[in-house]
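call fold(seq) -> tokens
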Amino acid sequence: MSQSISQAQCAPPQNPPDNVIMHLYHTAAAMEHLAGTLPEDMDGLAHLIGKLGKDVEFCAILLDDAPPDAED
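ret:
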């Protein structure tokens, strides 16, 4: 039997702990650093890793700037 996953199960937490947000920032920085250290013949991979790092950083910024609770 397969179970379907509801959207509520996939939704990000309303108030993620600061350590989760900091982990995302550190992960993004590590990915961008890795992209900068790859040799020129791996340019495509470096570009992809750099873009993913920027996406992770963007998610961290969104979570960091999220209002505390929007249940009012």
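The chain has a mean pLDDT of 81.
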